Amino acid sequence: MTQYLVPAQASETEFTEKRSTFIGHVWPVESEEEARARIDEMKKRYHDARHNCWCYLLKDGPVRYSDDGEPQGTAGQPMLGVFQKEGVTNVCCVVTRYFGGVLLGAGGLVRAYTQSAKEALDAAGVSAVRRWVELAVECPYSFLERVKLACTAQGGMVGEIEYAANVTVHALLPEESAEAFCARMTELSAGDFAAMELGEVFRAAPIQR
C-alpha cells in the first residue's frame, strides 16, 4: 500500500516572541510552480516585513528553503525539518517576521521559526493520500450511529448519508480494513444487512494525529 501525508488545508498562525511577530502560513501544493507562487504572494503581502523565510517539499520532487536574510541555518532549514520529522510532503511554508527590536540569537531564531512552522502545520491538519475502498451500508435508522462508529473504529471516514425508508451510509475504508468492516456489518445486523463495495478511490482524507 502506498501512502503519503500532506497538509489537509491552508492555514495561518501568529505569535510574538520578544516583540518580534512571526506569521506562519502552510499550504498543500502539487508543484514547484505552485509553491513559488505562494512564496511570491507572501512577499508581496508582507513587503514591509524584515524577513519572509520559506521552504517547500514535494513528493518525488525538489526540496528548497531560504533564510531570507536571517543568519544561515536559523530559519528555512529548521522550518523544513518540521515537515520532514512529521513525514509531510507536498507542502509549502512561509514564515514572516516583523522585527521587534530585540535580537533573539541563533538558538532563539531556530526555536521561533520551528514553532511557527509547527503551529501552522497543526492548524492545517494532516491528510493521508492513499487508496480507499468505498462502501455503502443500507440499514435501519436505529443502526446509524453503530455503523458510523464501526467505520471510524476501522480507521475509516464517514461520507454522505442518504435518508429514505432506511438510511444509507457511504464510507471510505483503508483497503486493509475493508474486509473487517464488512464482517462487522454482517455481525452487527445478524445478517439482515451488509456493506456493498462501490469501488476504490485514491485521495486525501484527514487523519487524527
Secondary structure elements and pairings:
Blueprint: E1 4-7, E2 11-17, E3 20-28, H1 32-45, E4 51-57, E5 63-66, H2 76-86, E6 91-98, H3 105-124, E7 126-139, H4 144-153, E8 157-163, E9 167-174, H5 178-189, E10 195-206
Antiparallel strand pairs: 1-7, 2-3, 3-6, 4-5, 4-6, 7-9, 7-10, 8-9
What does this structure look like?
With 209 residues, the protein is α+β, with helices and mostly antiparallel strands. 32% of the residues lie in helices and 38% in strands. It contains five helices and ten strands; from the N terminus they run βββαββαβαβαββαβ. It has helices at residues 32-45, 76-86, 105-124, 144-153, 178-189; strands at residues 4-7, 11-17, 20-28, 51-57, 63-66, 91-98, 126-139, 157-163, 167-174, 195-206. The strands form two sheets. Strands 1, 7, 8, 9 and 10 form a five-stranded antiparallel β-sheet that branches. Helix 2 packs across helix 3 and helix 4 (144-153) runs antiparallel to helix 5 (178-189). The longest helix is centred in the middle third of the chain and has 20 residues, at 105-124. It is elongated, with a radius of gyration of 22 Å. The model has no long low-confidence stretch (mean pLDDT 94).
- Tell me how many strands there are: 10
Radius of gyration: 22 Å
Quote the distance from N terminus to C terminus: 20 Å
Number of helices: 5
State the helical fraction: 25-40%
Ranges where pLDDT stays below 50 over 5 or more residues in a row are none
Rough outline = elongated
Elements, N to C (H/E): EEEHEEHEHEHEEHE
Oligomer: single chain
